[in-house]
Specification:
By secondary structure, the protein is an alpha+beta fold. It has helices at residues 7-23, 26-33, 41-51, 69-82, 88-101, 106-116, 222-257, 269-294, 300-329, 339-352, 357-367; strands at residues 121-124, 140-143, 147-158, 165-172, 178-184, 191-196, 202-214, 218-221, 259-260, 263-264. The protein has eleven helices and ten strands. The strands form two sheets. Strands 1, 2, 3, 4, 5, 6, 7 and 8 form an eight-stranded mixed beta sheet that branches. The chain has a two-stranded antiparallel ribbon with strand order 9-10. It starts with 6 loop residues before the first helix and ends in a 10-residue tail after the last helix. The relative contact order is 0.11.
């Protein structure tokens, strides 16, 4: 299994990182997340046209570059370090993964739209009372003569204001089988209530009653949903690694600049030891992110156990690094003027996104997976 980027992949990450350094620094990101849109159409257009990264992990047949989970890892790693809020995870990983497997006539055109930057997705899966973990949807999809009728509601749907489409999970005909459906974000039957999240994004509650959809708007089933969520968790591991690398570099730079008792903070042995521990956690998390990406193509049981184990352990490492970084910055660590506090907030969200540490550990136990070397300590 690949546990390091190839030279070509490193070059791709460097190109993405260089673009983000020039166009997505702390001040630029602050302008984006405080704008009325809370995302940047110009940046998204540049991702599609200048960098061509929206198709990096999508099939050749729809204009993509035919990559996979490792290619998504490249992007999410770079995006984590810059705290990018644009919907790459929802559009290019979650929705595109479902559409690439779908037999719906809509799939190809939507995938082509994603590559071109014209189609953006939000993912509506969680429901009131479900905590952070996916569960059996209470949203119902009933068959009609014309196709489907959707009734229910979803919470914590990220990115609805900037989305063109929403991928919605529902129980079909009340029989327990799960379906995935495409809903146009401007559908008149949608009621959307939005608010802000601590990591600079927009979270929405959506409600719908008897929302009519054509038959081909069903694009996936329960297996597709499970695979999409596993791929999303693998991508979050990569984003977490990017955040951890930025936490390390910013903390080291801060300690090299500040003095106490006439000595640079970085020269204090106790802080050197803490930095060494942070570096160890980072290296471990990076290996686990590669492991998770590599297991995206594995047999279902192994995939579930491996990715959940990786997500749980990476979340633990991410929390440790974020807490250490803030503590070593002192009171400056949580100010809006420094990126470190914003990294901490995004780390807090990632820890519970698509399942908490406890929920993923329980999933590993249920899957009966072999987690040798993936201790949760």
């Amino acid at each position: 299994m690949q546990y390091h980027f190839t030279d070509e992949q490193l070059q791709i990450r460097e190109v993405i990182s260089a673009f983000l350094t020039d166009h997505y620094d702390h001040e630029a990101r602050t302008r984006i997340v405080t704008s009325p849109e809370r995302w940047s159409p110009e940046i998204w257009r540049a991702f599609a046209e200048d960098l061509g990264i929206l198709g990096l992990g999508l099939p050749d047949a729809v204009g993509g570059l035919g990559g996979g989970a490792i290619d998504h890892m490249l992007v999410m790693d770079a995006f984590g370090a810059a705290l990018v809020v644009e919907p790459y995870l929802e559009s290019c990983v979650l929705a595109a993964g479902v559409l690439a497997r779908s037999e719906s006539p809509l799939a190809s055109s939507l995938l082509e739209g994603i590559v071109l930057g014209e189609v953006r997705f939000a993912f509506a899966d969680l429901e009131p009372g479900a905590r952070a973990s996916p569960s059996q949807p209470q949203t119902l999809a009933r068959r009609t003569e014309a196709g489907w009728s959707l009734s229910g509601g979803k919470v914590l749907v990220v990115g609805v204001p900037g989305a063109t489409h929403i991928l919605v999970s529902a129980s079909m005909d009340g029989a327990g089988d799960i379906g995935l459906f495409i809903v146009e974000a401007n559908h008149p039957g949608l009621k959307v209530t939005s608010g802000l999240t601590i990591d600079g994004r927009t979270s929405s509650m959506i409600e719908f009653e008897g929302l009519a959809l054509a038959a081909d708007f069903k694009v996936g089933d329960g297996e597709d949903r499970a695979e999409a969520l596993d791929r999303a968790n693998a991508a979050l591991c990569a984003e977490a690694v990017g955040i951890m690398r930025r936490l390390l570099s910013d903390t080291l730079a801060y300690l090299e600049q500040r003095k106490q008792f006439g000595t640079f903070l970085v020269d204090f042995q106790v802080l050197q030891h803490r930095l060494a521990d942070m570096r160890t956690e980072y290296e471990h998390a990076q290996a686990l992110a590669f492991f998770a990406a590599g297991m995206c193509e594995a047999q279902v049981g192994k995939r579930c156990a491996a990715i959940s184990a990786a997500k749980a352990r990476v979340s633990i490492a991410l929390r440790k690094l974020a807490q250490e970084a803030v503590q070593m910055h002192g009171a400056m660590g949580m100010t809006d003027e420094l990126q470190i506090g914003h990294l901490f907030k995004r780390a807090t969200v990632i820890e519970n996104q698509f399942g908490s540490v406890d929920q993923h550990m329980n999933r590993v136990i249920r899957a009966g997976g072999d987690t040798t070397g993936l201790a949760f300590g």
